Amino acid sequence: MIRAYKFLLRPTTRQAAALGEMLRDHCSLYNGALQERRDAYRHASKATVRYGDQSAQLKGIRAFDPERQGRWSFSSQQATLRRLDKAFGAFFRRVKAGQTPGYPRFKGVGHFDTVTFPKDGDGCRWDSTPRDRQTRVRLQGIGHVRVHQHRPVQGRVRTISVKREGNRWYIVLTCDNVPAEELPPTGAIVGVDMGVAHFLTTSDGEYIANPRFLQAMAEQLAEAQRHLATFPKRTRQRTKAHRAAARKVAKLYGKIRRQRADFHHKTAHALVTDHDVIAHERLNTAGMTKSPAPKPDPDNDGAFLPNGAAAKAGLNRSIFDAGWAQFLGILANKAESAGRLVVPVDARNTSRTCTECGHAAKENRATQAKFQCTACGFAANADHVGALNVLNRAGLVLCAAA
Question: Which residues of 282-296 are buried (b: 16+ CB within 10 A; e: fewer)?
Fold first, then answer.
């Protein structure tokens, strides 16, 4: 299997400054390569500049600017050019498919946060034998940086990426040949219903509360964003106070993101540990969080009727705060490593179908939490009914596959 390991870096003050310089120089290389492609298309009879052409120029660029470009790994600079080439490939693919193209844009220094080293040992070396109880990674132009390795790395390290998140630095190792760590069978099967009132409800009747991390820090975040909004939006020289305000907002968002990821990992681990088969709804979160279409007023030109956009915005915010897509991805990865089976099933009418008589109707969902069948009178919690229906549909899928 292929797995990624993400560890916190603990650079010194001088190393942190050098890491920032590395990102700025790679950002400059990315933007320069993008400008070359734009100029070639506009002024040279729509000529196409490809990755091979720009990679061949790297040797001359490094010799011309040894202090900024010559000090960094050649292979990492090639990876930056491949990143631009991949962006153009995606752009042309969307054009051919008739989708919104999204032409590659220039990267600001604050938005270019990752440098990739395609091969361990080429400009970057992962030290698998800790010295003085400290794991280190050697980066060309920076030195040996301490790593907070909180779990062992298995498999063979293929690529290494250095990533900045706010004022923190991380290293991401991509490894292949990672052995599966199968857990002993439990003989248990469970259905899971995702929700907003409860994060999830199992077919066993267990309710996992929704922590609502974004809502819990809404006041602090709003205060920090109001302070940031007092500065001019397009100031050319960002002041020290403006940078501090922006870091404050980024720090709060980073804390929310880490809390949510920690909660998802722990919840998924508990499900994988206790069950052999886990069934969940196949959710289309992109479609569920889509804004409602406007309703033109037929009696008044240019006027619109209420379409529930405000209420839908609140629901969308709750769905994003819950992070269903991230959780289901984590659950699938943990299940694969543990030798468990995850079964996604059709999510339509799971909370509107009676588990006793099979009657499905919108009227069965009396309220957000209450289910009462209009045919047989069966009453229960709506989320629990949904989890039971998910479990039943997973049984049909498994029987059909057997």
Answer: eeebeeebeeeeeee
